[in-house]
Write a structure and sequence with these properties.
With about 375 residues, the protein is an alpha/beta fold. About 30% of the residues lie in helices and about 25% in strands. The chain is built from 10 helices and 16 strands.
Length: about 375
């Protein structure tokens, strides 16, 4: 992938961009093998990857500069701003939206937040695109509600110019910290969730709910989990750290009992909406802490699927899973280091299968799916 920003030394986010993609994948596999070296792996599956550019469905843009000439991108450590609207990781469909938003910021009087001076209102613009129909969700992250009336007044013209904006909201983030969003979300459109679809499974994206940023590889990840589960004798499944329900919704069958647990209520609302669309009535999604839920249960499912954040599932959940001993565990990880630590704390399981998914080209990061079978 060629990137003018990288060549000009203005952005180094894609640290591996100079490596051929095949070499990147080989290096990631070598890293994964080294992390799992002390463990016996029965089958190493062929790694899966997707496009090398224009693959992102989401842009998180720091807004800086002036109200007349805003910059959308990032701030370097020294405080200087870099516009990233030409980043080749974004699809071409993002360009007209970025182009329209810059003059809109001026028309709405949304003064960019100045970190050094702690002044201004507009902190971030968050843009997400659905691969299903090209619909988009746009979120304005503001310091306060001071400019909300001005934004509302200017919005109809933007919506007429960009009809693909299906969901528009304002997030209020009042604190002077490097936090992307606050707790309060104010919707400016009647529609509050963006419709998406992977592998003919309906999914919904709401503000403040996690959703994968690489749809092509995420689709492969969910489809692989579904294939693995379908080959196992599973009638009762837990989907822990389930997010919007991508794994559970792919794996569920009309006769399977499934419980999905995620701490974010917004994500659970998405999962319930998808389950209703699919007509699956044995799926139960709840907004709870996954570890607390699991350790408080008395029954034992046939399979526990975990998809934790980077910190992993931790000792408490590993100990409980070892004690409860479900026949199967599927572990989806975005941090192979913490996954390796967790796997060492599950000695009652053999590692039947491991597969790498190159969700983040041009970086050292990747996702892993692992199938564990009770000994």
């Amino acid at each position: 992938m060629q990137c003018a920003l990288y060549d000009a030394d203005r952005c180094r986010s894609c640290q591996w961009i100079e490596r051929p993609v095949a070499d990147q994948l080989s290096a990631k596999m070598a890293d994964l093998r080294a992390l799992l070296n002390a463990l016996t792996i029965e089958e190493w599956c062929t790694p899966l990857s997707g496009p090398a550019q224009a693959f992102r469905n989401k842009a998180k843009m720091v807004v800086s500069g002036s109200v007349e000439k805003p910059l959308l991108g990032m701030l370097h450590r020294d405080g200087t701003a870099q516009d990233l609207t030409s980043c080749p990781l974004y699809p071409a469909s993002f360009a007209p939206v970025f182009a329209a938003l810059k003059p809109f910021i001026a028309r709405a009087g949304l003064t960019p937040y100045n970190v050094a001076r702690r002044r201004g209102e507009l902190k971030y613009l968050l843009l997400t695109e659905s691969q299903m129909d090209g619909g988009m969700m746009l979120r304005f992250v503001l310091r306060s509600e001071t400019k909300l009336a001005q934004l509302r007044a200017a919005l109809p013209a933007l919506q007429a110019q960009l009809p693909q904006l299906k969901v528009i909201s304002v997030n209020i983030q009042p604190v002077h910290m490097a936090i992307m969003e606050g707790e309060k979300e104010i919707f400016l459109t009647g529609q509050q969730a963006l419709a998406e679809q992977f592998n003919n499974v309906p999914l919904w994206i709401r503000p403040q709910s996690f959703f994968q940023t690489n749809p092509t590889v995420a689709s492969q990840l969910y489809a692989t989990a579904r294939a693995w589960v379908s080959a196992l004798p599973v009638q009762h499944m837990w989907d822990l750290f389930c997010g919007v329900g991508g794994f559970g919704l792919h794996c569920a069958t009309p006769t399977m009992k499934l419980t999905g647990i995620e701490i974010a209520p917004e994500a659970i609302a998405c999962a319930k909406q998808s389950a209703a669309q699919l007509g699956l009535h044995n799926l139960h999604f709840q907004a709870l802490d996954s570890t607390q839920f699991a350790t408080a249960q008395g029954d034992r499912p046939d399979l526990v699927l975990v998809n934790p954040p980077r910190r992993g599932i931790g000792k408490a959940l590993c100990d409980y899973l070892s004690q409860m001993a479900p026949p199967f565990i599927i572990y989806s990880s975005c941090n192979a280091q913490t996954m390796a630590q967790d796997l060492r704390q599950l000695p009652g399981y053999r590692i039947a299968r491991v597969q790498l998914f190159d969700m983040f080209p041009h970086t050292a990061h990747y996702e892993v799916l692992t199938l564990l079978i009770a000994r």
